[in-house]
Amino acid sequence: MENPCACLASIGVESEYDRAKELKAFDDTKAGVRGLVEFGVAKVPRMFIDPNERIIECCSTSPNARKDLMIPVIDIEGICETGEDAFARKEMINQVKHAAETWGFFQVVNHGIPVEIMDDVLEGARWFHEQPREERSKYYSRDKTKKVKYTSNFDLYKSPVANWRDTFFCAIAPEPPNPEEMPIAFRDVLMDYSKYVKKLGVALFGLLSEALGLDHNYLCEIGCSEGLFILCHYYPACPEPELTLGTSKHSDSNFITILLQDQIGGLQVLHQNQWINVPPLHGGLVINIGDLLQLISNDRFKSSEHRVLAAHVSPRTSVASFFNTYSQPSAMKYGPIKELVSEENPPLYRETTMQEYLEHYNEKGLDGTSALLHFKV
């Protein structure tokens, strides 16, 4: 078989670099970044290199980095059960409130999802990305209407630099895909995991509602928990991890994200102008506030920027569950919650539909700036 990545190397050394040609050559392989590794690429192609990103210098492993900062870990045992202890719940709410307002990130333990299910879905995600190129390429698409697809860099033709990452995407709720659309060896465990995530998401929105001083069901009643996308990310081992990123600096476009990561590490959150590692915690889940929750909370909650360093020795796998309503076109507008604004605390954002927000987010791509700025009053 002819090496489908050979032209990438030749483009990189041309006197007149043609980025558009390199992007198309990469996309046409339908093999993702994993395909580059499979064909033994020894140098990172130019399309992945951002000369403006100081990857090593601002890493939290730097000698000058703060070692006393760690994202909060919150025990939410009993969150999905009825009749939980009132004092314990109040403590949960206080911890979630503090984390959402100051970090925008926290990890949860004792969340009710069996560790075996979590391990199985990570193994399934890795299996999908490591199966033969001919098999995974059957799912490769940039069609926004597809509920199940495999791609590399959703913003490949929009962002200034490509990321060293591939993604398997599945729209789970409100309407799940047909089973025939999903890989047979992966669909059962993914759907099983999604049921637990959906239940946990509803419970977390209850805590977040109360942390804002609202009724327990408020955020769910305005649709925050209706839509669920699951993205299975795969970060192949990179030959030159100092030159590129697994995921560029960004904040998420949704209400909240529930992230399951393996034990490789690499996720970092920007806190107090410092990149802080989010260490893998077996059995734990990372929760982060998305842009739309920051918008409707009128900046009470923080949608923090984060990134993923390129893996070096071993590939990294993660499963990110995004709560939003993008798959269901709606005229419903989201703006700062009226109960949270006043004459002393006026709205900071204009109202927007989910579709308008995400179209702007996707058109902009991961360019290092916040999509929220476009909606500021």
TrEMBL record:
Residues 224-325 form the Fe2OG dioxygenase domain. Keywords: Iron, Metal-binding, Oxidoreductase. One of its GO terms (molecular function) is dioxygenase activity. InterPro entries: DIOX_N, IPNS-like_FE2OG_OXY, IPNS-like_sf, Oxoglu/Fe-dep_dioxygenase_dom. Gene3D superfamilies: B-lactam Antibiotic, Isopenicillin N Synthase, Chain. SUPFAM superfamilies: Clavaminate synthase-like. It comes from the Eukaryota. Pfam families: 2OG-FeII_Oxy (PF03171), DIOX_N (PF14226). Belongs to the iron/ascorbate-dependent oxidoreductase family. This is Fe2OG dioxygenase domain-containing protein. It comes from Stephania cephalantha.
